Amino acid sequence: MPNGSTNESNSPHLILVGLPGSGKSTIGRRVARRLARPFIDFDSEIERREGKSIAQIFSEVGEPGFRELELALTRELAKTGGMVLAPGGGWTTIPGAAALLHPPARMIYLRVKAEVAIGRILRGRRIRPLLQTANPLDTLKTLLAEREAGYLEADHVIDVEVVKSQQLIATIARLALP
Ligand code: S3P
User: Fold this and answer.
1) How far is CA 166 from CA 3, 31, 39, 169, 172, in A?
2) Among protein residues, the one whose CA lies closest to atom 15 of ligand 1
3) What CATH number has the domain bearing residue 169?
4) I need a surface site. Which of 66, 68, 157, 164 has the fewest CB within 10 A?
5) Degrees, nearest 5: CA angle 97-101-102
6) pLDDT at residue 10 in the model
7) Distance CA 150, CA 101 (A)
8) Which ligand 1 atom lies nearest to the CA of residue 21?
9) Whose CA is nearest to atom 3 of ligand 1?
10) Is 152 within a domain?
11) Cα–Cα distance list, 60 to 38, 52, 64, 132 (Å)
12) 121 lies in a domain?
């Protein structure tokens, strides 16, 4: 993990939340590059640390074990600042996790319809264990209904379907500035 010892480390983190398939990782990486800040994708960081894929972690320790790993990473990040963070889509459901960072972090909800997100997910290669169901779209709709209140705790909501990614990145980068 980058140690956060950049000039920006005293500034708050910027956190992108939203469903799987909302673009948190792709957009987050590009926003971080534009702002010259470290970027942490929670899933990639957890996979790197554990030496296992997210799917393997779920099959070995289940969702509760995975949430513990997310919470542990969050606790560490609470001691740093100035990064762009992309936690997994279920992070806001972990009791107390978001509150460890936000405030002072700025939280942005990348809002996307389940129908659009599922298309992106199915076109990609990453396995989302929670969506290995007979009807992934229905499952994602249920997850969205359960999670939306948590996502809406964000300081800003951006409907990602209606803006081009260049504009999205510029908008988010602006929201990160003091
Ligand atoms: C999850 C989303 C995934 C990953 C894990 C659980 C979820 O991250 O953390 O499969 O609960 O929605 P992405 O949102 O980056 O796909």
Assistant:
1) 28, 10, 18, 5, 10
2) 88
3) 3.40.50.300
4) 164
5) 100
6) 78
7) 14
8) 16
9) 88
10) yes
11) 30, 10, 11, 16
12) yes
pTM above 0.90, yes or no: yes
Position 22 in a domain: yes
**Atom number of ligand 1 nearest to Cα 128:** 10
Decide: 131 and 63 in contact? Cβ < 8 Å: no
Average model confidence (pLDDT) across the chain: 94
Number of the ligand 1 atom closest to the C-alpha atom of 131:
10
Chain segment 60-100, per-residue pLDDT in tens: 999 999 999 999 999 999 999 999 999 999 999 999 999 99
For residue 23, what are the domain limits? Answer: 14-176
Question: Which residues form ligand 1's pocket by a CB distance below 6 Å?
Answer: 20, 24-25, 43, 54, 88-90, 128-130
Nearest CA to ligand 1 atom 4: 88
